[in-house]
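Archive entry. Fields below.
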Amino acid sequence: MSSSTANEANGLTSVEYIQHHLHNNSIGEGGFWVLNLDTLIYSWLLAGVLMYIAYTMGKKMTPDTPSGGQNVLEAIVEFVQQQIRDIFPGSNPLIGPLALTIFMWVFLMNAMDLIPVDLLPELGQLVGIHYMKVVPTTDLSTTFALALSVFALIIYYNIKIKGPIGYIKMFLFHPFGKYLIPVNILMTAIEEIAKPVSLGLRLFGNMFAGELIFMLIALLGATSLLGLGPQIALGTVWAIFHILVISLQAFIFMLLTIVYLGMAHQEIDEH
Amino acid sequence: MSITATLIGQMITFAILVWFIGKYLWGPMTQMMDDRKKRIADGLAAAERGVHEQELAEQKAAQHIKEAKEQAAEILAQAQKRGVEIVEDAKDDAKAEGERLITAANAEIEQEVNRAKETLRAQVVDITIAAASKIVKKEIDAKAHGELLKDVVGQI
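PREDICTED_STRUCTURE:
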């Protein structure tokens, strides 16, 4: 392993460096009952930022002379509204705030990826915090919290719109009609469960991979002085590309939420 | 690298955040944007209506002007007709008055002539008597020859 020479500054090998960076700062006994404090605190901070923006903007916005911040928010709200209008059948007062929240919160959490990988953990080291993962969406708990919340809403609206019997009917008769009921149950169950799993894993995978590549790029300069040039070049290119990735992943998560909830709002089609 | 109880915390955070953003940002902002959309649409409709009303008003004004002109022309024509009538009447009156005056004057002239004739006749009698008495001196008695003289005067 030529790259495992050493991160001399911290006395860590490359593998240890990466493992260190992928370690959550958590409390708990292990297994499920663990709280990842870094994930929680960073997502709360970003949620707080969003709440602050939402509250102040909601209070001071004017219909006649919108200021810069209001224009940006109006553009985002209008964009989300347009997506809902295009995709979502009927109307639901929850879908708008839900989609907007997903878009902005996921975007902000993803955007933590653009902060240099070592900056916040190193600052943490200075005040005695030894483990810190700054991007909440590189934690499966975050992405699945969102995905499972959406999944719960999918089930709720399926039952609310189609009725409990309609929902069961969807499982029984859905893809192939009434003669292949066992296959139907299997297919529909897979289809439904695939929704939250794909939602959660897509976001997690993209952000985790992005973070990992940032770490590998950071290792370039750490291993030798010759790596410093490539580190800067590759880091810049990857960061610019990552701006696209973080917006796209936030957008996809929002869009699929609207699509899935839209499907839940459709009356069952008779076979 | 596994799903932990953090999930529950994140779900609660998510629910609160959705509620908060719905209440303080999405609700007021979509409401405001809808209101603004409606106001703009109303404004445009009002402008459209204003243009239409102006057109109508212009048409009405043109109509009024046309009617007024027609009325004025009518009044003018009537006035001219009336004027001509008045002039004609005045002419007729004047003619009648003139004739009356002429007739009256003629009658007066005749009277004057007659009166003059009478006076003249009386004076001629006196002059004749005087002249005759001078000629025949005492021979003619006014009383005796009165009959003759009257006859003479009647012939003048």
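CURATOR_NOTE: The two ends of chain A are 60 Å apart (CA to CA).
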